[in-house]
Specification:
Blueprint (H helix, E strand, L loop, with lengths): L2 H14 L4 H17 L5 H27 L13 H6 L2 H15 L16
Helix pairs in contact: 1-2, 1-3
Length: about 120
């Protein structure tokens, strides 16, 4: 991974630390998968890939800053995709988007630790 891609990757993972836990886990997993998939793409696709992730990082940074300043309302992270943007996606990307949406909207299981399962010394 070239230096600029590596810096962007690290920046995104650092930004995700400020997200709610469920979003952070989902986002981290997705970012890692996407950067891994795009390691060996051609220069034109790599440039477009990095530009989109730069836009994402800037958006998330803005939304994190807004969240820090706005203590009364819950921040909504991300954006609505326009029909024009969706039409630009390949079938594979639409499938990934559907998987991401399914993962993001499914109920989250809460883990509880009972006293019986704690480590005893």
């Amino acid at each position: 991974m070239p230096g600029s891609a590596r810096r962007l990757y690290r920046r995104i993972l650092l930004l995700h630390r400020a997200l709610p836990a469920a979003l952070r886990a989902l986002g981290d997993r997705y970012v890692k998968e996407e950067f891994r998939k795009h390691k060996a793409v051609g220069p034109a696709e790599a440039q477009r890939f990095l530009r989109e992730w730069e836009n994402y990082a800037a958006l998330i940074q803005r939304q994190i800053n807004e969240d820090k300043q706005n203590l009364t309302e819950k921040t909504v992270y991300g954006i609505q995709l326009t029909e024009e943007k969706l039409n630009d996606f390949r079938d594979e990307q639409i499938g990934q988007l559907k998987e991401l949406m399914d993962e993001a909207t499914k109920p989250h299981k809460k883990l509880t630790v009972s006293k019986d399962s704690e480590h005893k010394t």
